[in-house]
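Figure-free illustration: sequence to structure, shown twice.
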Amino acid sequence: MPGPEPTLSILIIDENRLRAVVIEDGLRDAGYTNLTIVHDVVGIARRIADVSPDVIVIDLENPNRDVLESMFQLSRAVNRPIAMFVDRSDHSAIEAAVEAGVSAYVVDGLKRERVKPILDMAISRFNAFARMAHELEEARSQLESRKLVDRAKGIIMKTRGLTEAEAYALLRKTAMNQNRKISEIAEGLIMAAGLLAPPEDK
């Protein structure tokens, strides 16, 4: 089993210095050495931008609603794996953590020996979610491209009296000749047809 990456940059955010030591020791035990520890959350967004960590570990002990919400907003903005420890929580806070993209929200689980596996879980969940988001975006893009091509084929079939296959072949040939995507050709054709059509047909 491969060991941890010593170069992995990890930012620890914890106002409680004793609890921060628990996290730091757990990470150093696991072989991580590139650690930055922040005890003051004031201006934390700027500090994260400066450090640019690969992973963020946040310990909030017993946060109130305002602190939790500010940390959830931070989680939405940074787009990095985040493991968050709290001593107490409720169902709504857990749901909010998931919606905010917190990769691992751990209630009453801050122990030195648990830090490494929880960090691993946070990274794995973040990567899995990122893959899913990328695949979803690709699927949406392909669907939009298909819609454009279908509309363009309809315009060609109507204006030039071609079959669907012939209309697609014409789009494809034009795209190849211009070294562009078929969807780009289709979008241009649709736009041109819209400009040339009588007002009642738009």
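We now fold a second protein in the same way, so the two outputs can be compared directly.
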Amino acid sequence: MPRVPLSHIAHGRSGDKGSHANVAVIARTDAGFAWLRDNLTAEAVAAYFAPLGPSRMERYEAANVRALNFVLYDVLAGGASRSLRTDTQGKTLAVALLRMEIDWEESAPLPPPSVDRMAKA
């Protein structure tokens, strides 16, 4: 089974709430959302971000937009005004998660995201 980055089946956004971060992962297709639901667990995301030391992880589903939202508690070392981390607002966490390699098999690969397609979204 080929390994691809998570960005092959999803896109994402992230941001901060004080010392906590939100990371949303939005599937490009129904099949991608099914994979996310079954495999992108709170435990898997917590393990991926373990170097940031999250104290707790919660996962929420937004099936109407084929998305999962993760709340990573205490990963921003105090947040924007107190942290000495490079990304004090967690803006790069979605991009970091989209680099996670996953096992994905499909008959026709998705086209890479284009600037035009992203502008229409």
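Summary for the second example: The mean pLDDT is 87.
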